[in-house]
Amino acid sequence: MVFFEHILGHPTLRQFGLIAGQSILGLPMDPIPDVGLVEAGDLDGEVVEVDSSYDQLLMGLSMLTLKDADDEELSPGDTELSVFDMISSTPYTYNHELLKTKRSRLEKPAEPSIPTTTLEQSYWDHFLRLKTEYRIKDDELYEIASEQKDPTTWRQAMSSPNRANWLKACFTEMTNIAKMGTFIFVSSPPPGRKALPSKWVFKTKKRPDGSIDKFKARWVVRGDLQKKGVDYKETYAPVASLVSLWILLAIAAAEDLELDQIDFVGAFLNGDVDADVYLHQPEGFKISADICRLIKSLYGLCQAARIWYLVVHSVLSEVGFERVDADPGCWVRWKNDEFEFVLAHVDDFLIGGRRDSVNKTKRLLSLRFKISDMGAARLFIGMSIERDREGRTIKLTQKHYIRDILTQYDLQDANPVSKPDRAWRFGHKGN
Questions:
Q1: Contact 215/166 with Cβ under 8 angstroms?
Q2: pTM for this prediction
Q3: Residues 345, 351: contact at Cβ < 8 Å?
Q4: Among 92, 131, 134, 180, which residue has the least CB neighbours within 10 Å?
């Protein structure tokens, strides 16, 4: 067996067969839908099931070899279909005919993946009950009814035309939280302590062109009600400054460096909480005792961003990156006269450097965290990144943000004028 160690660094795959070594370390596995497309075998050639779970499959990725239809190994450039589309907690169904024509469209299943733990199973059962209660059909789970303003409460989300998407987003959030072992149920907080309320935060994620990418839901703690010295101590967590972003983008453009973006799935869930915090379960997803105690950090906690930052800094330091003194939200590494940088804005990261180095860094991070590889940077902290490799320039724009602001104030059909004072007069008649 020849191990293909750079699979995580590759943005895409072509027509392929997957040969898995040693049954992915002998872990318990769930089958990928349409297994006939994906060949799996141990060292003796016996067919085995391949795990569709992201976390389990990651552990076996370094043991994979990619081969084409002629049984020839694929080189790093022979790829077209996203690795991270293949490997996710929600499995896809692969269309064999499309892969034959080297197209990358994937057909999603009607419902999220079946959970494997007791708590996940409870959320799965609850999800099915809610789907019936709100009369949501399977087809609605992957359809966008219309573009609406993001809801601010559970009731608004469930009365929205996109309620199926919001329900699926809430289920995905609670499943991720359950997988991370984020909390345990308790009957009540200890004497003198109160359970913090929690809420849902809903956000429609968009692509650089303004189209809808996905619906996202976060279970958030009401951190504004935490007491300093009781529920938390320190809260400071740096993010990279805009000046650092501009400088590093200028270096990437001038040196023709690769510029990739990754997003951490459930970033704040990766650190252990540093105090005893009790909270109520979110509305709509109360499946057991109402009170739970946090084991891991959770969004909304005053100290959550700091805990996440310390975890990331520790991991980056282990793989050779040094924190920039002038900006603790940036890390750099020099190796064999090659420059590589990591710039962080909470859980959105830019990684710049030569292709081999960037791929290696993403692979190392994926072994520690669950990440979403977004490939070449296109949209970062609300700014579209437009790059001209031949001219060695990078341009930042906020077209979609401007479009959203105009839509918010019902000015999307307004005509442009040459001078601001004319716009003021036309918009405020009589003033």
A1: yes
A2: 0.65
A3: no
A4: 134
